[in-house]
Amino acid sequence: MNEEDLHRLKGLVEELRDGQKRQLECQLEALALQREHFALVQHQLQRAEALQGRAEQLQNKGAQVIAAARKAIIVVLPILVVLIAYVTWLMFR
Prior knowledge:
Structural class: mainly alpha
Helix content: over 70%
Shape: rod-shaped
């Protein structure tokens, strides 16, 4: 190998080193973006879980209200029918 070949080889090795540095920098940036994205996804998952829990609480409360309303209807409806019959009887008496 002569001096010119060594100089070209040195240039190629330096280009490879510079390319690897650029690639490493790009990979570090991509990794940082992935970490940010992962943190955002975790935050959104926590919010979704909280919303899901709240929705379940609201559904349970709604079910309790419906159950109470059904019980009230069972009691109120016969009384209402009796009262309507009584008023009708009073009107046509």
